[in-house]
Amino acid sequence: MFQSAALDQSISKEEFEKRVPKLRADLLEMQHTLQETRDFSTIIIVGGLDGSGKGAAIARLFEWMDNRYLICNAYESKPTEEERLRPRFWRFWRDLPARGETAIVFGSWYQRPMRRAVKGKLDNDAFERELATINRFERMLAYENVLLLKFWFTLPEKEQKKRLEAVAASKHKARHYLEEWTGLEHRQKAQIAGEKVALHTSTGFAPWIVIPAADPDYRDLSVGETVLAAMKKRHEQRDMAPVSAPAVVSGITKTSAVDAIDLTETLSKSDYKQQVAHWQGRLAELTDHKRFQKLSMVSVFQGNDAAGKGGSIRRVTQALDPRNYKVYPISAPSDEEKNRPYLWRFWRRIPKKGHIAIFDRSWYERVLVERVEGFCSEADWLRAYNEINSFEAELAHFGIVICKFWLAISEDEQLRRFKAREEVAYKNYKITEEDWRNRLKWNDYAIAAGDMVDRTSTRYAPWTLVSSQDKRHARVKVLETHCKALEKAMFG
């Protein structure tokens, strides 16, 4: 596909100069409209053959559009030290534009797998797995109000050779003048890789658009007009709601793993002191071990209100070096976070190697609070199970140990703890009107929690279901689970 376009497309100077003023005015008007409505953000991916003018096309977009709402994210093929210590997609999530903004991406998530495939460092099966990961990423962005425009610039072989020779002879080489894997030496292999990329990743939500680049004016006008048309179409469709199948089958009573938690488990005070000391000591040893420097850890705490998440987290952090961990209490998203895909705020908090991130509530709020309270559509939370599984699979593949806990108490125990919080002055801050409102939806939250565990407990990120009716039992169970997960990852 990437080499099948008519490569000799061109436009007269008169026609170009006639169309550009209107295009520029329309692009600016569209940008300002999106700043008001915040319907979606736009990501423009620019790729293609060496010498095809990718940098020049980007420069022209910056000339035509309002730079206040336009950014360029250029990624080196070799990640920085900060990026190397985190999963590969972290740097792309970190830089996602807010709704109403446009980001031009140069050296995108396609660069590494295509480059490795062209240079023979990635076999066909591995290449297709990489492309499947990209598809999942782009599908989620599209569902999360991101307009994806992917351009591939192509040239006739003679024209490419001429341009590269001119660049090589120039005394003023651009910093990124050669990518080394789409030049003449690798042209045929790059075309084969491009065909596979087009086959697997040119989708309805993120199609590839081939741009003949022999004539710079034709190239840039085509890009600008395509961007404008896509933005207009997406803006006009902003009120179209997705349709989904019913999430619950009526007439069927389902018992989930959460319903089956044994709430009678207890631990005596003397045993508790002994076991807490033992497991905290072991956790300190493991996280200080040199092998942990090649790993990192993410701990997720979910559960019934007043189930003791904070107390369990404190027993974990007491064993850790404060320099190497951070606790993230997750509440309602800020305006900045609402303007980006819901996983964005969690990707930004992924720890680097040798470090630990502890989430007091997490990305699972999408399938719990947001589901029950109607803060997102049914289609949104239904697709979230797969999106979360893919997210966690990528973390695990990078070497991040994932511990997920559901802390459970009975409805009567929750009521007792709520009342106790109201009566004790230094615990008043823990009880809010929202807690009481949520309690009225106990059954709805129980169903949502059961579905969550059933659909997201995986081999690489299993849920640990903990009875927190007795806090001592819960705290020891949480510590022990952390230790055993680290031992398995570090020593097999």
TrEMBL record:
It catalyses: [phosphate](n) + ATP = [phosphate](n+1) + ADP. Residues 11-237, 267-488 form the Polyphosphate kinase-2-related domain. Gene3D superfamilies: P-loop containing nucleotide triphosphate hydrolases. It holds the Pfam family PPK2. The keyword Kinase applies. One of its GO terms (biological process) is polyphosphate metabolic process. One of its GO terms (molecular function) is kinase activity. Keywords: ATP synthesis, Kinase, Transferase. The keyword Kinase applies. Coiled coil: none annotated. InterPro entries: P-loop_NTPase, PolyP_AMP_Tfrase, PPK2-related. NCBIfam families: poly_P_AMP_trns. This is Polyphosphate kinase 2. It comes from Pseudovibrio exalbescens. The lineage of its organism: Bacteria, Pseudomonadati, Pseudomonadota, Alphaproteobacteria, Hyphomicrobiales.
